[in-house]
Amino acid sequence: MTNPSGNFNDKLDLAEKMLPLLGRLHREKNVVTSIFGHLLDNVTAIDIIKSHRFARRLLDEPLPLSETYPILECLVDMDISTVSIDIARLAQDFRDYDGELKDFLNEQLADVIGADADTTSTDVVLYGFGRIGRLLARILIAREGRGLGTKLRAVVVRKKGDDDIIKRASLLRRDSVHGQFNGTITIDHDNDIIWANGTPIQMIYSNDPATIDYTEYGIDNAIVVDNTGRWRDEEGLSQHLKSKGVARVVLTAPGKGDLLNVVYGINHKDITDDTTIITAASCTTNAITPVLKAMDDRYGVSYGHVETVHSFTNDQNLIDNFHSGDRRGRAATLNMVLTETGAAKAVSKALPEFEGKLTGNAIRVPTPDVSMAVLNLTLDKPAEAEEINTYLRNVSLRSVLRQQVGYIRSPEAVSTDFVGSTHAGVVDGMGTITQGNHAVVYVWYDNEFGYSNQVIRIVEEVAGSRPRVRPHRLELGEV
């Protein structure tokens, strides 16, 4: 019997040969490699095979390791640095190239060959160390090895006992949803330092964001990421800027007033050198805005309703008890809880053309992570479901929104399959429904990790350390 997937041992052999090449690109050249956005970072040979298999499902055609392996061999010998390279895109495009692989890669990477690596770094401080704070720490620690310019220096919390640092480190090490920390963690109790994969993280104990002297710890011109949610307006968040050593503030929640609410990929270019406070909106706003932008660009959206099916969060009660919010006092792990969401209205802060076009509601459900947004849209022109799916799939593969919009079409996909997704949202192609100019689009999103990746993209943008991307991604109108 013939194996339609080819000889697995041959694939494993190639994947194992790719591992040291990926390591060299990572360590020596600060090169980030991916397969259609699936990062090849700290991966195993099996991970590499799976990423190629995923690409096959997206493309409806094979992506052989025999096509991507030679590309890695060539990249290792090229004079490149600090760039994000999609080797699947390169392999696809090379199929139509009439010439040698080295010539093709020299053409594709011409503007990054010989470019000096950016060796500067920007200090990052996490103010608060809850669910989002710890995930941000994990991402920053992992990326520091790539030399992309952001360096986690400190975490600020209120001290809750003599064993505070031990418990903080333990929560960073173990996560019931996202699994074990990928690496080693040790504690310097005398100096209040957590060492994570060789990165020293200074624990700073304070109740006042305005009186910390970060320069005492060698921290200066830092970006403070406030993930407490305690302050959401300019007055409150400006307290951070009064502390010595702070240059910018990023809030991991929707901001109030005239603060700049940013959905990375949509309006991050609105950040200027004079923008000292940036808010990263909500996880739901980040999940739906890129998909809405793509749909509006192609079909026009005249009206829409967003219903989010959202995992429970810490602001709900585990058992029935008094809560200042309506219905949120009822047991989170036992009930579906109808509540409100400001995500629909918040879309217009990043996409002004949606002002007054969207309504929204939310249902909190008894799952710990991964949520879904149901986009019920009235379009300016009719469209078929398969046409929409093909378009959104191509957006996920080749467009400037590739990191924000993912795509899947699987008859068995459920919420836990999206734990750890780095996309802001993932379109479920099997859920798409159309009738005339009416469309329903389902979007999964890891409301913790996917959102945290969006926050880090903003931090890197503010730090000026976002990697160059090759091949160039297409504008939506070109998809």
Automatic annotation (TrEMBL):
Keyword flag Oxidoreductase: yes
Record carries keyword NADP: no
Pfam families xref list: Gp_dh_C, Gp_dh_N
SMART domains linked to this entry: Gp_dh_N
Keyword annotations from UniProtKB, A to Z: Oxidoreductase
UniProt-listed InterPro entries: GlycerAld/Erythrose_P_DH (IPR020831), GlycerAld_3-P_DH_AS (IPR020830), GlycerAld_3-P_DH_cat (IPR020829), GlycerAld_3-P_DH_NAD(P)-bd (IPR020828), NAD(P)-bd_dom_sf (IPR036291)
Every Glyceraldehyde 3-phosphate dehydrogenase NAD(P) binding domain range: 122-283
Leader sequence segment: none
Single GO molecular function: oxidoreductase activity, acting on the aldehyde or oxo group of donors, NAD or NADP as acceptor
Family as reported in the entry's similarity comment: Belongs to the glyceraldehyde-3-phosphate dehydrogenase family.
Designated name of the protein: Glyceraldehyde-3-phosphate dehydrogenase
